[in-house]
Write a structure and sequence with these properties.
Helices cover 24% and strands 37% of the residues. The protein has 102 residues and is an alpha+beta fold. The protein has one domain: Immunoglobulin-like, CATH 2.60.40.
Length: 102
Amino acid sequence: MGLPAIAIALSVLFMSGCATMGLRSAVDMTVKMGPHAPPSALVYINGNYIGSLAAVVARGVRVPEGKHRRSVEKSGYFPYEPIIVSDGDAIELRIDLLPLPD
């Protein structure tokens, strides 16, 4: 995914729900990978594709204040789907996916 596509994906994320979002400020969210997290896992916020886990770890993400569903998925692994509540403070997540049993 090139830089323009990433910019578009982030724009869609922040513009979705703008009518209900008001003027909430955005906070930084940093992501770290655990030892079992595949770098090629797909990252979604509120159903919108953000990028690979490796790309999100490298650049971080800004999310508007409020409640967000984050999903990290990779076939062969259980999905990681925490609800994030941003209240103005920076958020730090550590992602580790557990492999599905054989």
